[in-house]
Amino acid sequence: MVIPKTFSSWLVMTSLLRASTSTADKVAYTDHTVTSIKALQTWYYEEEGLWNTTGWWNSANCLTVLGDYGVLDHDGFIDLDLEDVLAITFTQAPQASQATNKMLMRSQSYHLIESHYTKSSRSGGSYMDSRGYSGFLNSFYDDEGWWALAWIRAYDVTNKTDYLNVAESIFADMQGGVNGTCGGGIWWSKDRTYKNAIANELYLAVAASLANRVSKANSYLEIAKNQWSWFKKSGMINNDNLINDGLTISANGTCTNNGETEWSYNQGVILGGLVELYRATGDPGLLSTASTIASAAISALSKDGILHDSCVFMRNLHYLQLEAPRDEFRTFILGNADSIWDTDRNSSNYLGLVWSGPPTAGGDPNAGTHSSAMDTLVAAMAVV
């Protein structure tokens, strides 16, 4: 078939226009991200290597979003002195004293975990009481998982093995939470009273991530494969392809889905874990399962195309989109990024909790709400 010259020229011009538009969009999302990083860093407290206005595990997520940005724009990462931020946090955060107390809040309609950080009387109350553990460990295995993933991403962007080594040491502590109750899996805390989704998803994600990065990959890969085999049979994934908060352990030892809140972070972390496990195994079924969960979450947890339970879902949807792209995922990421920038940003460029805006909805912005929204801006950079 002969293509007319005019039509051929039109195709070339259309292709160039699309490429130009895509490049312009990437520049815009990058600019938005850089502006947001500068705003985030106004909360950074170098003496403790943590971010004021948020807590211990949330600071790990602040670190992760900076690393994700660095993977996409290494020159910008260096220009913003973010490699120094990683180094400061690595040195200073283990010396910071933060005692984390978490409370299970139950009612007929929700199941919520509240984190409380206990102030110390030292130095006029500017420090936290001791966690009682060294390094990046505390009483909660999910907190440890967040820090392990943060240091894995720090390794990805710097290639410094110290960061990977500390991730391995954190994971070694997490392994102490595994037992045969409910047929396997890891406890949420060292009190060993609850097996929930987030701790187990993080355990999977860390194991699979290490399997893709360390020399003794086989041991981590076996752990990750066994963890996923247990998780998908645990009952936490419901008939709507969504993940409930955790398991109810009955007096006779049987474990069932507790039917409680389908938090977006539980729909998100599993995506990242399955992407890493796919990279380690090449099993396309893992991406298929992840895509099914992602689509179910987008349908159930958004209104007018905007996610209404903001957390780390977008970070992990970004990871999935790079391996198993769908127009649905890309459109959702970009739409949320645009909404955040247009309606959920205040005059100081702080980003709030509710991505449909205004930035004060649900309370004033803090480092936790801001870094969560930043995950979406970074995701937009990656998928545009």
From TrEMBL:
It comes from the Eukaryota. GO terms for biological process: carbohydrate metabolic process. Keywords: Signal. Residues 1-24 form the signal peptide. InterPro entries: 6-hairpin_glycosidase_sf (IPR008928), Glyco_hydro_76 (IPR005198), MUG_Protein (IPR053169). The keyword Cell membrane does not apply. SUPFAM superfamilies: Six-hairpin glycosidases (SSF48208). This is Mannan endo-1,6-alpha-mannosidase. It comes from Cytospora paraplurivora.
